[in-house]
Amino acid sequence: MHYAEFAEDESQALLNAIKEYENNKWKVIGQKVGKPAKACEQYAKEHFPDLFLNSKGR
Q1: What is the DSSP letter of 55?
Q2: CB-neighbour burial class of residue 37 (10 A; exposed 0-12, middle 13-18, buried 19+)
Q3: What stretches pass through the bilayer (predicted)?
């Protein structure tokens, strides 16, 4: 389920923001990418699942 569509450049920006801010700062990541925090979180978990293997979620 997608909350928002992400273009290729937005997807890359999201990945960069996750690496920069860690994957639990969704509000900051959303502001950086220009998308809602929940949309960023959902998209990341669907498209970059390997980033969440060593984390316990939020």
Answers
A1: S
A2: middle
A3: none
